Amino acid sequence: xxxxxxxxxxxxxxxxENLPIGFPDIPEMRESLWLKPIIELFNKQNQLIQEQAQKIQEQAQxIQAQAEQINALKEEVRQLKDExxxxxxxxxxxxxxPPGGSKNKNRESNLSPKSTLPAYxxxxxxxQEVHIRLGQVPQGFRFKGYASYIVQELEIVPKDVxxxxxxxxxxxxxxxxxxxxxxxxxTHFGSELLALVHNLYAFxxxxxxxxxxxxxxxxxxxxxxxxxxxxxxxAKYQALSELILKTGLAMAPYxxxxxxxxxxxxxxxxxxxxxxxxxxxxxxxxxxxxKNFLKILLQGKEEYWINEAFIWHLYECGAEDDLLNCFEEIxxxxxxxxxxxxxxxxxxxxxxxxxxxxxxxxxxxGFISETIxxxxxxxxxxxxxxxAILNHAAxxxxxxxxxxxxxxxxxxxxxxxKQVREAIWVLYDKVKEASWTQTGKEExxxxxxxxxxxxxxxxxxNEVIASFKKYREEMLKALDYPKLPLHNNDSERDIRxxxxxxxxxxxxxxxxxxxxxxxxxxxxxxxxxxxxSFFGFMKDWFERDPVNLADLVVEKYRAQNxxx
Length: 564
Description:
disordered N terminus, single chain, 22 helices
């Protein structure tokens, strides 16, 4: 500070500017030759200090970038070692939780909104009272009632139910016979046993375990019969799953999407989850592309429409203005088949394969935007490329996640990381509050501007800040859609069951098995979302009198809209 003040004072004297207050204005000093060398020295030293500071800053950035690269290489080496150990059938590396787990868990619970799922509608319990006598009671004691002690119990009693169907013979020799109840026609297993088998499979038990359990309980059954009990419902599950998806897409104000790895016929694939507050849907396919996601939304339909959504998608893909203007002139054109749009592209001389695929995707998106999804419907995802279409909102948790994985190498980066994360979560709370109350939006935009202006010597921190800047509209989507979640955690929870199923059973071998697994998980998780007992639903299912889950989804969303 003293050097800067002296330098400023001398320069002001030499330029005949106003001197600082209290400094004597001596004309002789202005013309003194001995001041010039001092000023030049100050200037050289000041320039040298600035150059050294800049070099130090550049070196710190290089060191931090190298440290992050080393950490990434260490992680890659660790994964390769684990893969080698797996191929050699060596024991897996133990997983250790980071210290302070309870503290981090509390912080996450404070940042994430509480679940608003309804409670389960469990079956009614039977009440049984067992009176226990004291025995011999000494004289002089009076009876004062009972002390209650409640024990929950479950009875699994195997039994053979023999149905005696009346048979009557007419005068002409014809026979009339009573009919079996609907729930047991065509099967020799009762509804409760079938419901138990499907429940245990849905919650993780494999077929060998089911067979061992049933045989241990005294049920006369074979492994093939266990398999047939499960696979027999595959087509019905799939049909109801598609109806649930159609209903959910029509009623939900926002759609959550996510995916995870899956195997079919020993080949890697992907399981896509589409859900909302009151429904969940699963579909296993071989591809993780945007085209695959669009096919799931289409549910067997296929048309190509040129409209605003078509043109906007091409613009997002980086199409040239001349091409966009050409499509603008024929806006409203509809093609029922892929060949029609391809014929148009050929007539225009568009032979680039990538551009053709983008136009085909845009055509499907145009059709979906007007026939399947509403304009005010939001797609919420982890910002994966295949999901970022139409009216899209990004997940705050996923955008901030790279900062949690960042390994700090110096004090400056640690302080920078702390400031950026603190700014993100303060902004998160403000956005959530503004979304619910529809007030304070100006403060949110101000805080967001401050966040995207932050800088760090860490390239990874700067990349996260740049992502927040690039996807600003998607991160602040909740300001325009009240009560829209800021994270995609519910979708990750829903798809976790499929991950467990994959880890237990591995790969499905037939298309029937794949359809059964997807359908069963759809019904189970939709029951969970609706607050319906899955065991009770499956029991009614096998008694041929189940509640219509699609109708329940409609009722839930209508009730929600009525109270909004």
